[in-house]
Amino acid sequence: MSEEEIEIERLESLFPPVSGVAFAAARKQVLASGQSVLQSEGGFIYRFFPDGRKEVVKQIEPPTAGVLGRKYTIQ
């Protein structure tokens, strides 16, 4: 494996935790501005409000588990 491939793998491994922190901060900022946010949870999409309420928007299909190392094509 080349040094470039090793560096790409290292950077890719950092993405999940960093993106989680970024999404949490963005959600907090939107709620603090008085707006609602949409979030999927347990097979449903919910609208969360700044006052802590949440309402069901719609039911969705359960998430599909990914396989590590497998490439997916989204059409």
Word description of this protein:
- This protein has one domain.
- Helices cover 40% and strands 21% of the residues.
- It is built from one helix and three strands; from the N terminus they run αβββ.
- The chain has one helix at residues 3-32; strands at residues 37-41, 44-48, 54-59.
Give the ordered list of helices and strands. HEEE
Shape: flat
Low-confidence stretches: none
* Widest β-sheet, arrangement of strands: 1-2-3
Radius of gyration: 17 Å
* Helical amount: 40-55%
Report the portion of residues in β strands.
15-25%
Structure class? alpha+beta
Average pLDDT figure: 92
Distance between the termini: 31 Å
Counting structural domains, the number is: 1
Task: Note the main attributes of this structure.
single chain, alpha+beta, three-stranded antiparallel β-sheet, 75 residues
Q: In summary, what is this structure?
A:
The chain has one helix at residues 3-32, and strands at residues 37-41, 44-48, 54-59. With 75 residues, the chain is of the alpha+beta class. A 3-stranded antiparallel sheet has the order 1-2-3.
Explain the layout of strands and helices.
Layout: H1 3-32, E1 37-41, E2 44-48, E3 54-59
Antiparallel strand pairs: 1-2, 2-3
